[in-house]
Q: What sequence folds into this?
């Protein structure tokens, strides 16, 4: 927050935009106050002055996350889709994966498991292409969780086994715990 104030006073709009972006994200994740919307606005305002197309896409993404927090999934989908389109046009695969993952989360919350699976498969494709093994492990876990939600126990077991093996190799302790919970669900359904 202080970083934003300093950058804003010095008219360093790029730095102000990133400072506001991270302040918004932190407030969405860790705060119960509702001023995250004003921080998202500060981020957008700064980047509209001097931001690159990539940064403008990040401003749309953070506004999308605010919309999710406020329960406006339709607005979130629109904003995340706009961010995704910009990143696609720029060829920024890792940024695309971020938006696709956000969209998958919305699809899951809405009970659209097939839509979530499609988004997660796209994220996995990007993770493999970019050799992002952490993201691959997370994708395997998410795909296993979606399969569990659909009662596709064999698929769930396959994805979750891939996820836990990679998570163990990478030392992703929290992810291992989450995968173990999901594996327990599928094993129980399979009678193991």
A:
């Amino acid at each position: 927050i202080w970083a934003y104030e300093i950058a804003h006073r010095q008219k360093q709009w790029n730095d102000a935009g990133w400072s506001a972006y991270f302040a918004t994200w932190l407030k969405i994740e860790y705060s119960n106050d509702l001023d995250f919307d004003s921080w998202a606005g500060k981020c957008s305002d700064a980047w509209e002055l001097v931001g690159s197309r990539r940064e403008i896409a990040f401003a749309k993404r953070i506004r999308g996350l605010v919309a999710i927090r406020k329960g406006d999934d339709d607005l979130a989908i629109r904003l995340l889709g706009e961010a995704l389109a910009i990143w696609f046009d720029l060829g920024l695969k890792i940024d695309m994966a971020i938006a696709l993952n956000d969209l998958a989360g919305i699809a899951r919350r809405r009970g659209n498991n097939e839509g979530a699976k499609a988004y997660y498969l796209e994220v996995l494709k990007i993770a493999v292409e970019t050799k992002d093994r952490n993201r691959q492990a997370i994708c395997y876990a998410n795909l296993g969780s979606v399969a569990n939600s659909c009662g596709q126990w064999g698929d769930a077991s396959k994805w979750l086994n891939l996820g836990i093996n990679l998570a163990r190799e990478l030392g992703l302790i929290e992810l291992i715990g989450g995968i173990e919970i999901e594996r327990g669900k599928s094993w129980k359904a399979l009678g193991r």
Remarks:
- Residues 13-30 form the longest helix (18 residues).
- The chain is about 85% helix and 0% strand.
